[in-house]
Specification:
The protein is an alpha+beta fold. The chain folds into three domains: 71 residues, no CATH class; 70 residues; 153 residues, no CATH class. Helices cover 59% and strands 7% of the residues. It is built from 15 helices and four strands. The protein has a four-stranded mixed β-sheet with strand order 2-3-1-4. Strand 2 and strand 3 form a beta hairpin. The chain is globular. The mean pLDDT is 95. It binds zinc ion (ZN). Zinc ion binds next to helix 2 and helix 3. It comes from Pseudocitrobacter corydidari. This is Lysine-N-methylase.
């Protein structure tokens, strides 16, 4: 059989080249081989890391070059074929996620538009990867002309969805490698989200948003949050292999970004290392938390909910 393409991003390469084993909380309790992950497909293989490991999270998030891909060839090990449609959709999402003319939120918005079109083709049974490339090119052109940014600015804000997402965050438990006082403080800040009165939650939401906006770190090092998004796109071969409700996977992605923002704002003073610690702990929690039961909402409805969290 023909050898297939094998991808190793810079974050994996750098982690693999470490002299000493990682001793973060997740690695101390992990099985052999953690945090290395190989996504073995019939027609390509992707190397990655589970960023529940804090060192892995630092490598993936804090280095602007983390997603430079080193490509080689190797024999096939996987069974699942990555279809041309899925492969192209994943690539177009990644292209939008690194578009130089767009902010992070605008990039996610552009992905939402792409996925909405992709869903239409999917539902009509007229899937052709060429269509995805064409939509990707159109979106890229609109981004360069500033049109996407204008459209994004005109999106109505649906505060209720953001408040519901914030309230849900009361269930999150972060296993942070911090002294007890710091750990407890963060646990309380999260759990009180679930029990705040609606008016108190709305005030709190405004304050957290203001806090987030004022954080210079994410303007100075915009790749940190963007890398968190690219990681999800690459690692899960977004929009993933389970199901074909693209709206649902989009909502999951924007909810993830929303949670990171709110957790950072709740935490307060941040360094890049602290952000990596928080994202790593969030990742660990999400892996242990069973996915919420599917609410059987339509892809369109989910897409709108996803957009409302930007
Ligand atoms: Zn580790």
């Amino acid at each position: 059989m023909e050898p297939i393409e094998h991808y190793q991003p810079e974050y994996v390469k750098r982690f693999a080249a470490r002299d000493t084993a990682c001793t973060c909380l997740a690695c101390r309790n992990a099985r052999q081989g953690f945090p290395f992950v190989s996504i073995k497909l019939k027609n390509q293989q992707r190397e990655s890391l589970n960023i529940a490991c804090e060192t892995a999270a630092r490598e993936a998030l804090l280095n602007p070059e983390a997603f430079v891909l080193h490509t080689s060839h190797k024999p096939v090990e996987g069974e699942t074929l990555l279809s041309a449609w899925h492969k192209t959709l994943n690539q177009q999402c990644i292209n939008l996620a690194i578009h130089p003319s767009l902010s992070l939120e605008e990039r996610l918005y552009a992905m939402g538009v792409l996925l909405s079109k992709a869903q239409q083709y999917h539902d009509n049974g007229t899937k052709d990867p060429v269509q995805l490339v064409s939509i990707g090119e159109q979106l890229s052109g609109l981004a360069d002309q500033g049109v996407l940014a204008q459209q994004f600015a005109l999106l109505p804000t649906i505060v209720e969805n953001q408040l519901a997402a914030l309230k849900e965050m009361g269930a999150i438990r972060l296993n942070l490698d911090l002294p007890m006082a710091g750990k407890m403080a963060m646990a309380l800040k999260l759990s009180e989200l679930a029990i705040m009165s609606p008016s108190r939650l709305a005030e709190h939401h405004q304050a957290l948003n203001a806090q987030w906006q004022a954080m210079a770190l994410f303007n100075e090092q915009p790749w940190i949050l963007n890398n968190a998004v690219i990681y999800q796109l690459y690692h899960t071969v977004f929009p993933g292999f389970d199901g074909d409700n693209y709206g649902e996977t989009f909502l999951r992605l924007t909810r993830y970004v929303f949670r990171i923002k709110m957790i950072c704002a709740l935490y307060g003073e941040l360094t890049p290392d602290t952000v990596a610690m928080l994202v790593s702990a969030l990742e660990e929690w999400m892996q242990q938390d069973p996915l919420p039961a599917k609410r059987q909402n339509s892809a369109d409805y989910n897409l709108l909910c996803g957009l409302s969290l930007l």
